[in-house]
Design goal:
Chain lengths: ~170, ~400
Protein backbone atom coordinates (compact mmCIF):
# COMPACT_ATOMS: atom_id res chain seq x y z
CA UNK A 1 0.00 0.00 0.00
CA UNK A 2 1.50 3.30 -1.11
CA UNK A 3 1.91 5.86 1.63
CA UNK A 4 -0.11 8.61 -0.03
CA UNK A 5 -2.93 6.21 -0.88
CA UNK A 6 -3.08 4.93 2.70
CA UNK A 7 -3.09 8.44 4.14
CA UNK A 8 -5.92 9.37 1.81
CA UNK A 9 -7.97 6.32 2.75
CA UNK A 10 -7.52 6.94 6.48
CA UNK A 11 -8.45 10.60 6.10
CA UNK A 12 -11.55 9.66 4.11
CA UNK A 13 -12.71 7.02 6.55
CA UNK A 14 -12.00 8.71 9.86
CA UNK A 15 -12.17 12.38 8.92
CA UNK A 16 -11.40 14.81 11.68
CA UNK A 17 -10.85 12.16 14.31
CA UNK A 18 -7.33 11.55 13.07
CA UNK A 19 -4.41 13.89 12.56
CA UNK A 20 -1.74 12.60 10.23
CA UNK A 21 1.80 13.78 10.72
CA UNK A 22 4.51 12.65 8.34
CA UNK A 23 7.82 13.16 10.10
CA UNK A 24 10.04 11.69 7.46
CA UNK A 25 9.91 9.57 4.35
CA UNK A 26 9.63 6.36 6.35
CA UNK A 27 7.67 7.39 9.44
CA UNK A 28 3.99 8.32 9.57
CA UNK A 29 2.45 9.19 12.94
CA UNK A 30 -1.33 9.27 13.32
CA UNK A 31 -2.93 10.91 16.34
CA UNK A 32 -6.25 9.27 17.07
CA UNK A 33 -9.23 10.05 19.26
CA UNK A 34 -9.99 7.38 21.85
CA UNK A 35 -13.32 6.26 20.45
CA UNK A 36 -12.00 5.13 17.05
CA UNK A 37 -8.84 3.42 18.41
CA UNK A 38 -10.08 -0.12 17.75
CA UNK A 39 -11.70 0.80 14.43
CA UNK A 40 -8.45 2.25 13.15
CA UNK A 41 -6.42 -0.75 14.32
CA UNK A 42 -8.97 -3.05 12.68
CA UNK A 43 -8.86 -1.00 9.49
CA UNK A 44 -5.06 -1.13 9.30
CA UNK A 45 -4.70 -4.80 10.28
CA UNK A 46 -7.61 -6.42 8.48
CA UNK A 47 -8.67 -4.10 5.67
CA UNK A 48 -5.27 -2.76 4.70
CA UNK A 49 -3.47 -6.02 5.55
CA UNK A 50 -0.70 -4.30 7.51
CA UNK A 51 1.37 -6.25 10.02
CA UNK A 52 1.06 -5.44 13.73
CA UNK A 53 4.37 -4.97 15.48
CA UNK A 54 4.17 -3.80 19.08
CA UNK A 55 3.13 -0.96 21.34
CA UNK A 56 4.62 1.58 23.71
CA UNK A 57 3.29 3.41 26.74
CA UNK A 58 4.58 6.76 27.88
CA UNK A 59 3.64 8.55 31.07
CA UNK A 60 2.85 12.22 31.28
CA UNK A 61 1.56 14.38 34.11
CA UNK A 62 -1.99 14.51 32.77
CA UNK A 63 -2.29 11.07 31.29
CA UNK A 64 -0.71 8.15 29.47
CA UNK A 65 0.20 8.24 25.82
CA UNK A 66 0.02 4.90 24.06
CA UNK A 67 1.19 4.15 20.56
CA UNK A 68 1.08 1.03 18.43
CA UNK A 69 3.30 0.33 15.43
CA UNK A 70 2.11 -1.02 12.09
CA UNK A 71 5.02 -1.51 9.69
CA UNK A 72 4.18 -1.53 5.97
CA UNK A 73 6.82 -3.97 4.79
CA UNK A 74 6.19 -3.78 1.06
CA UNK A 75 6.73 0.00 0.97
CA UNK A 76 9.34 0.18 3.74
CA UNK A 77 7.64 2.61 6.13
CA UNK A 78 6.14 2.59 9.61
CA UNK A 79 2.65 3.72 10.56
CA UNK A 80 2.40 4.61 14.26
CA UNK A 81 -0.98 5.25 15.81
CA UNK A 82 -1.08 7.29 19.00
CA UNK A 83 -3.69 8.26 21.50
CA UNK A 84 -3.74 10.01 24.84
CA UNK A 85 -5.60 8.61 27.85
CA UNK A 86 -6.44 11.05 30.60
CA UNK A 87 -5.67 10.44 34.27
CA UNK A 88 -7.01 9.35 36.66
CA UNK A 89 -7.96 5.82 35.57
CA UNK A 90 -6.74 5.79 31.97
CA UNK A 91 -8.74 3.23 30.00
CA UNK A 92 -9.26 2.22 26.40
CA UNK A 93 -10.82 -0.62 24.42
CA UNK A 94 -8.44 -3.55 23.85
CA UNK A 95 -7.40 -4.53 20.34
CA UNK A 96 -6.41 -8.07 21.42
CA UNK A 97 -9.70 -9.49 20.24
CA UNK A 98 -8.81 -8.43 16.70
CA UNK A 99 -5.04 -8.93 16.94
CA UNK A 100 -4.06 -11.73 19.37
CA UNK A 101 -0.43 -10.64 19.03
CA UNK A 102 -1.29 -7.50 21.02
CA UNK A 103 -2.24 -9.49 24.14
CA UNK A 104 1.08 -9.33 25.90
CA UNK A 105 1.98 -5.77 25.04
CA UNK A 106 -1.38 -4.57 26.37
CA UNK A 107 -0.78 -6.56 29.54
CA UNK A 108 2.64 -4.96 29.83
CA UNK A 109 1.28 -1.45 29.39
CA UNK A 110 -1.39 -2.22 31.99
CA UNK A 111 1.27 -3.48 34.36
CA UNK A 112 3.60 -0.54 33.91
CA UNK A 113 1.13 2.35 33.66
CA UNK A 114 -2.17 1.03 35.02
CA UNK A 115 -3.93 1.50 31.71
CA UNK A 116 -7.13 -0.50 31.79
CA UNK A 117 -7.67 -2.26 28.45
CA UNK A 118 -11.40 -2.91 28.37
CA UNK A 119 -12.56 -6.34 27.16
CA UNK A 120 -9.03 -7.73 27.15
CA UNK A 121 -9.31 -11.54 27.33
CA UNK A 122 -6.84 -11.91 30.19
CA UNK A 123 -5.64 -8.64 31.69
CA UNK A 124 -3.07 -9.59 34.32
CA UNK A 125 0.50 -8.42 34.72
CA UNK A 126 2.87 -10.15 32.32
CA UNK A 127 6.29 -9.34 33.75
CA UNK A 128 5.53 -8.95 37.43
CA UNK A 129 7.06 -11.25 40.03
CA UNK A 130 4.76 -12.57 42.75
CA UNK A 131 6.34 -10.48 45.49
CA UNK A 132 5.82 -7.11 43.87
CA UNK A 133 2.99 -5.14 45.54
CA UNK A 134 -0.27 -5.08 43.61
CA UNK A 135 -0.63 -1.31 43.60
CA UNK A 136 2.87 -0.66 42.29
CA UNK A 137 3.06 0.40 38.64
CA UNK A 138 6.78 0.91 37.99
CA UNK A 139 6.69 3.32 35.05
CA UNK A 140 3.99 5.55 36.50
CA UNK A 141 5.30 8.99 37.20
CA UNK A 142 3.60 9.16 40.60
CA UNK A 143 5.09 5.83 41.63
CA UNK A 144 8.62 6.65 40.65
CA UNK A 145 9.16 8.90 43.68
CA UNK A 146 6.40 8.25 46.14
CA UNK A 147 5.88 4.53 46.45
CA UNK A 148 7.67 2.61 49.20
CA UNK A 149 9.17 0.35 46.53
CA UNK A 150 10.71 3.32 44.77
CA UNK A 151 14.35 3.86 45.53
CA UNK A 152 14.80 6.30 48.38
CA UNK A 153 16.69 9.35 47.29
CA UNK A 154 19.26 9.19 50.10
CA UNK A 155 19.83 5.43 49.82
CA UNK A 156 23.37 5.84 48.62
CA UNK A 157 24.22 8.34 51.37
CA UNK A 158 22.98 6.01 54.09
CA UNK A 159 25.04 3.10 52.86
CA UNK A 160 28.07 5.30 52.43
CA UNK A 161 27.69 6.70 55.91
CA UNK A 162 27.27 3.24 57.44
CA UNK A 163 30.60 2.15 56.05
CA UNK A 164 32.66 5.31 56.23
CA UNK A 165 30.95 7.37 58.89
CA UNK A 166 29.44 10.73 58.24
CA UNK A 167 31.94 12.94 56.44
CA UNK A 168 32.93 16.18 58.08
CA UNK A 169 31.79 19.22 56.23
CA UNK A 170 34.30 20.36 53.66
CA UNK A 171 36.49 17.29 54.07
CA UNK A 172 36.87 14.54 51.55
CA UNK A 173 36.47 11.19 53.34
CA UNK B 1 -8.73 -36.03 32.82
CA UNK B 2 -6.76 -32.84 32.34
CA UNK B 3 -3.53 -32.51 34.31
CA UNK B 4 -1.09 -29.66 34.48
CA UNK B 5 2.64 -29.96 33.89
CA UNK B 6 4.71 -26.93 34.83
CA UNK B 7 7.90 -26.40 32.85
CA UNK B 8 10.27 -23.87 34.31
CA UNK B 9 10.75 -21.11 35.22
CA UNK B 10 14.28 -22.51 35.37
CA UNK B 11 14.75 -25.41 33.07
CA UNK B 12 17.49 -26.62 30.70
CA UNK B 13 15.18 -26.54 27.70
CA UNK B 14 14.43 -22.85 28.13
CA UNK B 15 16.95 -20.29 26.96
CA UNK B 16 15.87 -17.86 29.61
CA UNK B 17 13.67 -18.32 32.65
CA UNK B 18 10.09 -18.73 31.54
CA UNK B 19 7.21 -20.62 32.98
CA UNK B 20 5.04 -22.84 30.80
CA UNK B 21 2.10 -24.60 32.32
CA UNK B 22 0.99 -27.39 30.05
CA UNK B 23 -2.57 -28.63 30.48
CA UNK B 24 -2.45 -32.22 29.26
CA UNK B 25 -5.06 -34.82 28.57
CA UNK B 26 -3.08 -38.06 28.56
CA UNK B 27 -0.11 -37.37 26.30
CA UNK B 28 -1.77 -34.52 24.44
CA UNK B 29 -1.38 -30.84 25.28
CA UNK B 30 -4.77 -29.13 25.31
CA UNK B 31 -3.76 -25.71 26.59
CA UNK B 32 -0.64 -23.80 27.49
CA UNK B 33 -0.29 -20.93 29.91
CA UNK B 34 2.91 -18.91 29.80
CA UNK B 35 4.44 -16.55 32.29
CA UNK B 36 7.44 -14.45 31.36
CA UNK B 37 9.26 -11.77 33.27
CA UNK B 38 11.57 -13.95 35.36
CA UNK B 39 14.58 -12.07 34.15
CA UNK B 40 12.98 -8.65 34.02
CA UNK B 41 15.81 -6.27 34.80
CA UNK B 42 14.22 -2.91 34.21
CA UNK B 43 16.51 -2.14 31.26
CA UNK B 44 14.11 0.49 29.89
CA UNK B 45 14.15 2.47 33.13
CA UNK B 46 17.93 2.03 33.45
CA UNK B 47 18.34 3.31 29.94
CA UNK B 48 16.39 6.45 30.79
CA UNK B 49 19.10 7.23 33.36
CA UNK B 50 22.07 6.84 31.04
CA UNK B 51 23.45 9.25 28.50
CA UNK B 52 22.77 8.67 24.81
CA UNK B 53 26.25 7.27 24.26
CA UNK B 54 26.15 4.94 27.28
CA UNK B 55 22.92 3.24 26.25
CA UNK B 56 24.48 0.98 23.54
CA UNK B 57 26.63 -0.67 26.23
CA UNK B 58 23.52 -1.28 28.31
CA UNK B 59 21.30 -2.61 25.55
CA UNK B 60 23.90 -5.01 24.22
CA UNK B 61 23.65 -6.73 27.61
CA UNK B 62 19.94 -7.46 27.09
CA UNK B 63 20.98 -10.66 25.39
CA UNK B 64 24.37 -12.35 25.16
CA UNK B 65 23.60 -13.66 21.71
CA UNK B 66 21.86 -10.64 20.15
CA UNK B 67 24.47 -8.31 21.57
CA UNK B 68 24.91 -6.56 18.24
CA UNK B 69 21.28 -6.44 17.13
CA UNK B 70 19.97 -4.47 20.12
CA UNK B 71 22.55 -1.67 19.94
CA UNK B 72 22.13 -1.68 16.15
CA UNK B 73 18.37 -1.07 16.47
CA UNK B 74 19.00 1.55 19.17
CA UNK B 75 21.51 3.55 17.14
CA UNK B 76 19.20 3.34 14.15
CA UNK B 77 16.38 4.76 16.28
CA UNK B 78 18.57 7.71 17.31
CA UNK B 79 19.75 8.16 13.74
CA UNK B 80 16.09 8.11 12.66
CA UNK B 81 15.46 10.95 15.08
CA UNK B 82 18.52 12.85 13.83
CA UNK B 83 17.90 11.96 10.16
CA UNK B 84 21.56 11.29 9.47
CA UNK B 85 23.30 8.73 7.31
CA UNK B 86 26.45 7.12 8.62
CA UNK B 87 29.65 6.83 6.55
CA UNK B 88 29.82 3.99 4.03
CA UNK B 89 32.73 2.26 5.74
CA UNK B 90 30.83 2.16 9.04
CA UNK B 91 27.81 0.70 7.26
CA UNK B 92 29.80 -2.28 5.98
CA UNK B 93 31.52 -2.80 9.31
CA UNK B 94 28.14 -2.84 11.05
CA UNK B 95 26.80 -5.41 8.59
CA UNK B 96 29.86 -7.67 9.02
CA UNK B 97 29.57 -7.82 12.81
CA UNK B 98 25.78 -8.22 12.68
CA UNK B 99 26.01 -11.10 10.19
CA UNK B 100 28.79 -12.84 12.14
CA UNK B 101 26.45 -12.66 15.10
CA UNK B 102 23.67 -14.27 13.09
CA UNK B 103 26.02 -17.10 12.09
CA UNK B 104 27.02 -17.96 15.63
CA UNK B 105 23.46 -17.64 16.90
CA UNK B 106 22.00 -19.99 14.29
CA UNK B 107 24.79 -22.52 14.85
CA UNK B 108 24.13 -22.36 18.58
CA UNK B 109 20.45 -23.11 18.05
CA UNK B 110 21.13 -26.00 15.65
CA UNK B 111 23.41 -27.57 18.25
CA UNK B 112 20.86 -27.22 21.00
CA UNK B 113 18.05 -28.56 18.82
CA UNK B 114 20.26 -31.58 18.11
CA UNK B 115 20.73 -32.08 21.83
CA UNK B 116 17.00 -31.87 22.55
CA UNK B 117 16.14 -34.61 20.11
CA UNK B 118 19.02 -36.81 21.24
CA UNK B 119 21.57 -36.04 18.52
CA UNK B 120 24.43 -35.11 20.74
CA UNK B 121 26.94 -35.51 17.92
CA UNK B 122 25.21 -32.71 16.02
CA UNK B 123 25.34 -30.66 19.21
CA UNK B 124 29.07 -31.10 19.68
CA UNK B 125 30.10 -30.66 16.05
CA UNK B 126 27.96 -27.57 15.55
CA UNK B 127 29.40 -25.90 18.59
CA UNK B 128 32.86 -26.80 17.35
CA UNK B 129 32.09 -25.10 14.02
CA UNK B 130 30.78 -22.09 15.91
CA UNK B 131 34.08 -21.48 17.70
CA UNK B 132 35.97 -19.98 14.72
CA UNK B 133 33.13 -17.44 14.28
CA UNK B 134 33.56 -16.36 17.89
CA UNK B 135 37.34 -16.26 17.43
CA UNK B 136 36.93 -13.92 14.48
CA UNK B 137 34.59 -11.70 16.50
CA UNK B 138 37.18 -11.61 19.26
CA UNK B 139 39.99 -10.79 16.85
CA UNK B 140 38.02 -8.00 15.16
CA UNK B 141 36.11 -6.41 18.03
CA UNK B 142 37.96 -7.55 21.14
CA UNK B 143 35.20 -9.71 22.57
CA UNK B 144 33.53 -13.03 21.84
CA UNK B 145 30.26 -11.40 22.89
CA UNK B 146 29.27 -7.82 23.70
CA UNK B 147 31.24 -6.39 20.82
CA UNK B 148 30.67 -2.70 21.66
CA UNK B 149 30.89 -1.94 17.96
CA UNK B 150 27.82 0.29 17.55
CA UNK B 151 27.88 3.97 18.20
CA UNK B 152 25.44 6.73 17.30
CA UNK B 153 26.71 7.93 13.93
CA UNK B 154 28.91 4.96 13.09
CA UNK B 155 31.12 2.34 14.68
CA UNK B 156 33.71 2.48 17.44
CA UNK B 157 36.57 0.80 15.64
CA UNK B 158 37.74 -0.44 12.28
CA UNK B 159 38.51 -4.04 11.40
CA UNK B 160 42.25 -4.23 10.64
CA UNK B 161 42.87 -4.94 6.94
CA UNK B 162 45.13 -7.81 7.99
CA UNK B 163 42.10 -9.64 9.36
CA UNK B 164 40.24 -9.78 6.04
CA UNK B 165 42.15 -12.87 4.94
CA UNK B 166 41.41 -14.68 8.20
CA UNK B 167 37.72 -13.83 7.96
CA UNK B 168 37.56 -15.11 4.37
CA UNK B 169 39.30 -18.34 5.31
CA UNK B 170 36.93 -18.88 8.23
CA UNK B 171 33.94 -18.25 5.95
CA UNK B 172 35.20 -20.73 3.34
CA UNK B 173 35.67 -23.40 5.99
CA UNK B 174 32.29 -22.67 7.53
CA UNK B 175 30.54 -22.86 4.14
CA UNK B 176 31.74 -26.44 3.69
CA UNK B 177 30.84 -27.42 7.22
CA UNK B 178 27.45 -25.81 6.97
CA UNK B 179 26.78 -27.79 3.78
CA UNK B 180 27.71 -30.95 5.65
CA UNK B 181 25.48 -30.03 8.55
CA UNK B 182 22.54 -29.07 6.34
CA UNK B 183 22.88 -32.38 4.51
CA UNK B 184 22.93 -34.25 7.81
CA UNK B 185 19.69 -32.56 8.87
CA UNK B 186 17.82 -32.64 5.58
CA UNK B 187 18.66 -36.25 4.69
CA UNK B 188 18.18 -37.89 8.05
CA UNK B 189 14.99 -40.01 8.15
CA UNK B 190 14.87 -39.94 11.95
CA UNK B 191 15.01 -36.14 12.08
CA UNK B 192 12.28 -36.08 9.44
CA UNK B 193 10.08 -38.39 11.49
CA UNK B 194 10.82 -36.49 14.68
CA UNK B 195 10.37 -32.88 13.52
CA UNK B 196 8.12 -32.87 10.43
CA UNK B 197 4.56 -31.91 11.18
CA UNK B 198 5.47 -31.06 14.77
CA UNK B 199 4.47 -27.68 16.21
CA UNK B 200 3.00 -26.24 13.05
CA UNK B 201 2.55 -22.50 12.93
CA UNK B 202 0.82 -21.56 9.70
CA UNK B 203 0.92 -18.28 7.83
CA UNK B 204 -2.41 -17.07 9.16
CA UNK B 205 -1.40 -17.54 12.78
CA UNK B 206 2.05 -16.07 12.17
CA UNK B 207 0.31 -12.89 11.08
CA UNK B 208 -2.23 -12.90 13.91
CA UNK B 209 0.43 -13.38 16.58
CA UNK B 210 2.95 -11.10 14.90
CA UNK B 211 5.56 -13.85 14.64
CA UNK B 212 8.98 -12.73 13.48
CA UNK B 213 12.22 -14.04 12.07
CA UNK B 214 12.79 -17.73 11.27
CA UNK B 215 9.67 -18.64 13.28
CA UNK B 216 7.54 -16.67 10.83
CA UNK B 217 9.52 -17.41 7.68
CA UNK B 218 9.33 -21.16 8.26
CA UNK B 219 5.53 -20.85 8.09
CA UNK B 220 5.54 -18.95 4.80
CA UNK B 221 5.14 -15.53 6.42
CA UNK B 222 7.71 -13.52 4.56
CA UNK B 223 9.09 -10.82 6.88
CA UNK B 224 12.70 -9.76 7.13
CA UNK B 225 13.59 -6.32 8.47
CA UNK B 226 16.83 -6.26 6.47
CA UNK B 227 14.81 -6.25 3.25
CA UNK B 228 11.52 -4.67 4.43
CA UNK B 229 13.01 -1.75 6.34
CA UNK B 230 16.41 -1.51 4.72
CA UNK B 231 19.11 0.22 6.68
CA UNK B 232 22.71 1.16 6.05
CA UNK B 233 24.48 -1.11 3.59
CA UNK B 234 21.72 -3.70 3.15
CA UNK B 235 19.92 -2.15 0.14
CA UNK B 236 23.06 -2.51 -1.97
CA UNK B 237 23.92 -6.02 -0.82
CA UNK B 238 22.60 -9.08 -2.56
CA UNK B 239 20.91 -11.72 -0.40
CA UNK B 240 17.86 -13.95 -0.39
CA UNK B 241 15.24 -14.17 2.30
CA UNK B 242 14.74 -17.85 3.06
CA UNK B 243 11.09 -18.82 3.31
CA UNK B 244 9.64 -22.29 3.88
CA UNK B 245 5.98 -23.24 3.88
CA UNK B 246 5.16 -25.88 6.48
CA UNK B 247 5.89 -24.00 9.69
CA UNK B 248 7.00 -27.10 11.61
CA UNK B 249 10.19 -27.62 13.61
CA UNK B 250 11.95 -29.14 10.59
CA UNK B 251 11.32 -26.03 8.49
CA UNK B 252 12.54 -23.80 11.31
CA UNK B 253 15.81 -25.72 11.31
CA UNK B 254 16.08 -25.56 7.52
CA UNK B 255 15.47 -21.78 7.47
CA UNK B 256 18.24 -21.21 10.00
CA UNK B 257 20.68 -23.47 8.19
CA UNK B 258 20.04 -21.82 4.83
CA UNK B 259 20.32 -18.35 6.36
CA UNK B 260 23.86 -19.21 7.38
CA UNK B 261 24.79 -19.36 3.69
CA UNK B 262 23.16 -15.97 3.09
CA UNK B 263 25.08 -14.46 6.00
CA UNK B 264 28.35 -15.80 4.64
CA UNK B 265 27.52 -14.28 1.24
CA UNK B 266 26.72 -10.93 2.87
CA UNK B 267 29.99 -10.82 4.81
CA UNK B 268 31.96 -11.66 1.67
CA UNK B 269 30.28 -8.81 -0.21
CA UNK B 270 31.04 -6.37 2.61
CA UNK B 271 34.68 -7.48 2.64
CA UNK B 272 34.88 -6.93 -1.13
CA UNK B 273 33.54 -3.40 -0.70
CA UNK B 274 35.91 -2.64 2.15
CA UNK B 275 38.89 -3.93 0.19
CA UNK B 276 37.91 -1.75 -2.76
CA UNK B 277 37.77 1.27 -0.45
CA UNK B 278 41.27 0.81 0.92
CA UNK B 279 42.32 1.83 4.42
CA UNK B 280 39.95 4.18 6.21
CA UNK B 281 40.40 7.21 8.41
CA UNK B 282 38.70 8.25 11.65
CA UNK B 283 36.11 10.26 9.70
CA UNK B 284 35.11 7.15 7.79
CA UNK B 285 34.10 5.40 10.98
CA UNK B 286 31.83 7.79 12.77
CA UNK B 287 30.00 11.06 12.33
CA UNK B 288 30.40 13.80 14.84
CA UNK B 289 27.09 13.86 16.73
CA UNK B 290 26.30 16.85 18.89
CA UNK B 291 23.19 17.31 20.97
CA UNK B 292 20.14 15.17 20.42
CA UNK B 293 17.18 17.47 19.74
CA UNK B 294 13.65 16.77 21.03
CA UNK B 295 11.87 14.20 18.89
CA UNK B 296 11.23 10.51 18.49
CA UNK B 297 12.68 7.70 16.45
CA UNK B 298 12.04 4.06 15.59
CA UNK B 299 14.87 1.68 14.82
CA UNK B 300 14.49 -1.87 13.57
CA UNK B 301 17.00 -4.55 12.74
CA UNK B 302 16.64 -8.21 11.89
CA UNK B 303 18.25 -10.06 14.80
CA UNK B 304 18.89 -13.81 14.46
CA UNK B 305 15.49 -14.49 16.08
CA UNK B 306 13.51 -11.83 14.24
CA UNK B 307 12.98 -8.12 14.10
CA UNK B 308 14.22 -6.09 17.06
CA UNK B 309 12.43 -2.79 17.57
CA UNK B 310 13.70 0.15 19.61
CA UNK B 311 11.69 3.31 20.12
CA UNK B 312 13.26 6.38 21.67
CA UNK B 313 11.94 9.78 22.59
CA UNK B 314 14.10 12.74 23.40
CA UNK B 315 13.14 15.89 25.26
CA UNK B 316 16.42 17.59 24.37
CA UNK B 317 18.34 16.47 27.44
CA UNK B 318 21.36 14.19 27.40
CA UNK B 319 19.35 11.05 28.22
CA UNK B 320 16.42 9.38 26.47
CA UNK B 321 13.08 10.40 27.91
CA UNK B 322 11.58 7.04 26.92
CA UNK B 323 13.30 4.01 25.51
CA UNK B 324 11.18 1.02 24.53
CA UNK B 325 12.79 -2.27 23.58
CA UNK B 326 10.82 -5.01 21.88
CA UNK B 327 12.82 -8.20 21.37
CA UNK B 328 11.51 -10.72 18.81
CA UNK B 329 10.98 -13.42 21.44
CA UNK B 330 8.26 -11.27 23.00
CA UNK B 331 6.13 -11.94 19.93
CA UNK B 332 7.49 -15.40 19.14
CA UNK B 333 6.94 -16.98 22.56
CA UNK B 334 3.28 -16.01 22.38
CA UNK B 335 2.92 -18.17 19.24
CA UNK B 336 3.38 -21.27 21.44
CA UNK B 337 -0.20 -20.65 22.48
CA UNK B 338 -1.14 -21.97 19.07
CA UNK B 339 1.71 -24.27 18.03
CA UNK B 340 2.04 -26.42 21.18
CA UNK B 341 -1.64 -27.29 21.51
CA UNK B 342 -2.48 -30.68 20.00
CA UNK B 343 1.08 -32.01 20.28
CA UNK B 344 2.49 -34.48 22.79
CA UNK B 345 4.43 -33.60 25.95
CA UNK B 346 7.63 -35.04 24.45
CA UNK B 347 7.28 -32.56 21.59
CA UNK B 348 6.29 -29.57 23.71
CA UNK B 349 9.84 -28.94 24.87
CA UNK B 350 11.12 -29.12 21.31
CA UNK B 351 8.44 -26.75 20.01
CA UNK B 352 8.99 -24.15 22.71
CA UNK B 353 12.72 -24.38 22.01
CA UNK B 354 12.19 -24.20 18.25
CA UNK B 355 11.17 -20.54 18.37
CA UNK B 356 14.65 -20.06 19.89
CA UNK B 357 13.56 -18.02 22.88
CA UNK B 358 16.49 -16.37 24.40
CA UNK B 359 18.84 -19.61 27.54
CA UNK B 360 19.25 -19.58 31.12
CA UNK B 361 19.64 -23.06 32.37
CA UNK B 362 19.17 -24.64 35.72
CA UNK B 363 16.91 -27.36 36.87
CA UNK B 364 13.33 -27.68 37.96
CA UNK B 365 10.51 -29.69 36.55
CA UNK B 366 7.43 -30.50 38.59
CA UNK B 367 4.37 -32.49 37.78
CA UNK B 368 1.16 -31.77 39.67
CA UNK B 369 -1.85 -34.02 39.70
CA UNK B 370 -4.61 -31.44 39.81
CA UNK B 371 -7.26 -33.82 41.07
CA UNK B 372 -5.35 -35.45 43.91
CA UNK B 373 -2.90 -32.58 44.48
CA UNK B 374 0.05 -34.99 44.37
CA UNK B 375 3.26 -33.36 43.31
CA UNK B 376 6.15 -35.15 41.64
CA UNK B 377 9.47 -33.43 41.18
CA UNK B 378 11.52 -34.69 38.26
CA UNK B 379 15.24 -34.32 37.74
CA UNK B 380 16.74 -31.73 35.40
CA UNK B 381 16.82 -33.56 32.12
CA UNK B 382 13.51 -35.36 32.29
CA UNK B 383 11.85 -33.38 29.58
CA UNK B 384 14.90 -33.68 27.36
CA UNK B 385 15.01 -37.41 28.21
CA UNK B 386 11.37 -37.79 27.16
CA UNK B 387 12.19 -36.06 23.89
CA UNK B 388 15.34 -38.13 23.33
CA UNK B 389 13.50 -41.36 24.11
CA UNK B 390 10.93 -40.53 21.49
CA UNK B 391 13.68 -40.03 18.90
CA UNK B 392 15.22 -43.36 19.89
CA UNK B 393 11.86 -45.07 19.54
CA UNK B 394 11.37 -43.59 16.06
CA UNK B 395 14.88 -44.66 15.09
CA UNK B 396 14.19 -48.25 16.14
CA UNK B 397 10.90 -48.30 14.29
CA UNK B 398 12.54 -47.00 11.13
CA UNK B 399 15.36 -49.53 11.42
CA UNK B 400 12.78 -52.28 11.93
CA UNK B 401 11.09 -51.29 8.71
Amino acid sequence: MQKEELKKKIAEKFGEKVTIDERSEKRVYIYVENDIWVDLADFLFNDMDIRFDTGVGLDDRDGVEIMFFFPVDSEHYFVTIKTFLKKPNPAIESISNIIPGAKWIEREIYEMYEVNFLNHPDLRPVLRCDTRPKDFYPHKRENKDEHEMARRKNDGDDRFNEIWGKPEKGKNP
Amino acid sequence: MVKKIPIGPFHPILEEPEFFELHVDGEKVVKIDMTIGWSHRGIEILSEHKTWDQVPFLVERICGICSCSHPYAYVKAVEDLLQVEVPKRAQYLRAIVAELERLHSHLLWTGLAGHFIGYNTVFMWTWKYREPVLDILEATTGNRNHYAMMRIGGVRRDIPTGEYGNIRKMLDDLWEKNELLTGAIVDDPVIHARTKGVGILDKKHCRLYGALGPTARSGGYDVDARRDHPIDAYPELDFDVIVCQNGDVFDKAVVRQMENFESIKLIRQCLDKLEAMGPGTEEDLCLEIGEIPPGEGIGVYEAPRGEVLHYIRSNGKNMPMRHKVRAPSFNNILTNEHSVVGNTVADAGLITAAVDPCYSCTERVGRVDVDSGDRYMMSEGDLIRLSQEKTEQIRKELEGN
